[in-house]
Amino acid sequence: MSPVEKLPPRAWVIVGLLFCVGLLNYLDRVMLITMRRSIIAEIPMSDTQFGLLTTAFLICYAFLSPIGGYLADNYSRSRIILVSLFAWSVTTWLTAHATTFGELLATRILMGLSEAFYLPAAGALIADYHTNRTRALANGIHLSGVVVGSGLGGLGGWLAERHGWTFAFELFGGIGVVFAGFAFFLLKDRPKATLEPKMEAVAGMKTAEEKLSVMAALGSLFRRPAFVGLMLFWGMLGLSSWAFVGWMPTFIGERFGLGQGEAGLTTTGYLYGASLVGMVGGGFWADRWSQRDSRGRAFVGIIGLVGAAIAIVFVTGATALPVAIACLMGYGLCRALPDSNMVPILCGIADPRYRATGIGFLNAFATFVGGLTILAGGMIRDAKLDITYLFLGAAGGLVLCIGLLWAIRPREPAGSVG
User: Fold this and answer.
1) Percent helix, strand, coil in the chain (nearest 5)?
2) pLDDT tens digits along 169-196
């Protein structure tokens, strides 16, 4: 490796820490959807209201995500991550003490507000420590923590059946608070003196030092057609993913007569287990391909989207549980391929000074659209319509994502280290 490409000593330590934080982030948010029966038994609500719990979380999360990104571009990324972790862990613990639908809804809103600051800061921090040669792999490892957390979210239904639905929220809320204290001593920003020189060598980016104002960030991001295309891509991807994953535990449980805990663990365990392989493998593959072709990352994502769309179609028609499980694993493996390349593709489009803000907008649009999709799923069920129509719509959304990803052109050449 040349000196320019050499990574700082803490680069992989940061990824390891964020793997754990990302795990807790998604574990705390996902486990609620796997314990639907237990919660409704104690806090009566309709399917639309239950869907609203996730929708409220996602809309609040979406609203604050760009703000979290902007703050991460202007202040310490690592401190923002730690404050966010502590806040959502406390909120997780408080969720266990909700006794009415209104109180439960309030904790989901607080969860959305507190978690919104994490992902933009984490993605930008990884980009600070890693170059184009390792960025997708590092991002894939980080997001594999998200995958593991999502998979472990299935424990929520299992624990709810054995210890009551409040137990898991108290347990993992406490673990998050303790881990925030541990991470305080290890999670650090990359020293400014060792940062690459803002990577202004990327074509068209200014080199002059200027204050990172809100208007400057908005102007820099949204005047680039590729960024707008990337935001539309992630929005459509969020719609399709939440439509499929958000109601899959319920679908599997009802179609194959599984209990709440078994359905949750079956869905999340197999799906996210395969996603774990796709996330890391896709990142490694894309890093290698991008050294030969600047569009290599997009090609890896397109291949994954084709496979994921096919898997959705097959799982909705499955009449045997092993077939459904095989399709879920295929979906998880393929759907993970574009995820590990989100930040690396953004790095080839956006001014490095506004990376976290850019991640915030991408995350916001995807989660806002996804939240509306979850609510639509509840309304479909209350109207006694077949939920598989929602799944087939998700497959169609992935096809549209293929076209959007194909149209995006990165600025940086193959092999760029910026």
Assistant:
1) 80, 0, 20
2) 999 999 999 999 999 999 999 877 566 5
Phi-psi region of 384 (alpha: psi -120 to 50; beta: other; left: phi over 0): left
Which token pair is 261? 């805990």
Q: With contact defined as beta carbons under 8 Å apart, do 244 and 303 qualify?
A: no
What is the residue range of 386's domain?
11-189+196-204+214-407
Kindly tell me the burial class for residue 332, based on how many C-beta atoms sit within 10 Å of its own C-beta (0-12, 13-18, 19 or more).
buried
Provide the domain count of the chain: 1
Spell out the residues 6+ positions from residue 191 whose beta carbon is closer than 8 angstroms to its own. Answer: none
Give the C-alpha separation, 70 to 396, whole Å: 33
For residue range 93-115, what is the model confidence (pLDDT) as tens digits?
999 998 899 999 999 999 999 99
Q: How far is CA 128 from the centre of its chain?
A: 19
Residue range 215-243, pLDDT digits in tens: 888 888 999 999 999 999 988 888 888 77
Confidence band, pLDDT 50/70/90 cuts, at residue 4: very low
Q: Where are the alpha helices (DSSP H) in 116-245?
A: 118-129, 135-152, 155-163, 165-183, 214-222, 225-245
Q: In whole angstroms, what is the distance from residue 410 CA to residue 375 CA?
A: 34
Give domain status of residue 20, yes or no.
yes
The whole-number pLDDT of residue 263 equals 76
The answer to whether residue 303 sits within a structural domain is yes
Whether residue 412 is contained in a domain is answered as no
Q: Decide if 290 contacts 414 (C-beta within 8 A).
A: yes
Identity of the amino acid at 279: M
Q: How far apart are CA 301 and CA 406, in angstroms?
A: 9
Residue 78 is part of a domain; what is its CATH number? 1.20.1250.20
Nearest residue to 334 via CA among 300, 293, 294: 300
Asked whether residue 6 is domain-assigned, the answer is: no
Which region holds residue 102: left if phi is over 0, alpha if psi is between -120 and 50, else beta? alpha
Name which of 272, 392, 396 is nearest 329 in CA terms.
272
d(C-alpha 113, C-alpha 189), whole Å: 23
320: left (phi over 0), alpha (psi -120 to 50) or beta: beta
